[in-house]
Amino acid sequence: MPLATARVVTAHPARYIKQLVSHMGHKATTTLRPDGRGTITVSSGTCVLTPAPDRLELTATAVDAESLARVQDVITRHLMRFATREELVADWTAAIDGGELEPTEPVVGEYLLSHHTPADDILGELAAATREATADAACMQVSADEGTLLTMLTRLTGAHFAVEVGVFTGYSTLCIARGLADGGRLLACDVSEEWAAIGRPYWERAGVAERIDLRIAPALETLRALDSEPVIDIAFIDADKGNYPAYYEEIVDRLRPGGLVVLDNVFLGGRVLDPAYQEERHVAMRRLNDLIAADERVDAVMLPVRDGVTIARRR
């Protein structure tokens, strides 16, 4: 259970963050961002310090409960040492497991689903067919509001050439294809003809089947066979998570200036936020999230949409 937070009431949160980052920089890895947030990483784990108008917010993470307690202790002790003019209280929450986080609270999620341009009958029937045919695997399908977002982003870029990595039953494929400019083409990559076949009749009914070039093969092979020129207008990655860094690298260099790459599931159910989770997919997603945030080739934003969506725009 390696996540915990605390709120420290104070009128001087920015001052304390600067003091802690400066003082601890001699024996820890520290950063101070332009927005005033500080990060302190010690051997046991990491604490992020965020200023708010009337408080200092702390978020501590570590690989296990014992290490987390050490992080909380060292940050709290140093913070209290600097509080010579006021009495501070760091009331830490109980430790929680990242897999138990709700990135979107159910009530918020339902409200969002009620307040976007609704899916039409074709998309609704495809979603129902997916639930019936794939049972528990149906959770891999994007939600209706995320589908609307994909169509909107595709239209906003004026996309003529799109790439999708991970088709599943073709819901997101249909959403992207609908947003393409006249004469546009979508290269859709997947390894399952069986699941992709579920979507084909719905692509036909929507009148976009001729825009979709479905390739049943390992996506990395398909991507590496593309011309190296920057011709992709928009790409959507929603496939096996361990290969996300490789998919991103193959795509980002082929994005034209102003082109977008959209990545789904960047939270992995909250487990990416929790360093206790060390499976290949968790490590790969953390590495990629950090890479994109520092990637000088793109401007990026991570959104708390469903299981986390990152949108990166090629500079």
Quick recap:
The chain is of the alpha/beta class and 315 residues long.
Please tell me about this protein's structure:
The protein is α/β, with parallel strands linked by helices and 315 residues long. It folds into two domains: 3-96, Alpha-D-phosphohexomutase, C-terminal domain (TATA-Binding Protein), CATH 3.30.310.50; 106-314, Vaccinia Virus protein VP39 (Rossmann fold, 3-Layer(aba) Sandwich). The chain is 37% helix and 24% strand. It has ten helices and 13 strands. It has helices at 13-24, 65-82, 106-113, 121-134, 144-156, 171-179, 193-206, 219-224, 244-252, 280-294, and strands spanning 3-9, 29-32, 38-41, 45-52, 55-62, 91-92, 161-165, 185-190, 212-216, 232-237, 255-264, 298-303, 309-314. The protein has a seven-stranded mixed beta sheet with strand order 9-8-7-10-11-13-12, sandwiched between helices. The chain has a six-stranded antiparallel beta sheet with strand order 2-3-4-5-1-6, with helices on one face. Strand 8, helix 7 (193-206) and strand 9 form a beta-alpha-beta unit. The protein is elongated, with a radius of gyration of 22 Å. The two termini are 39 Å apart. The model has no long low-confidence stretch (mean pLDDT 93).
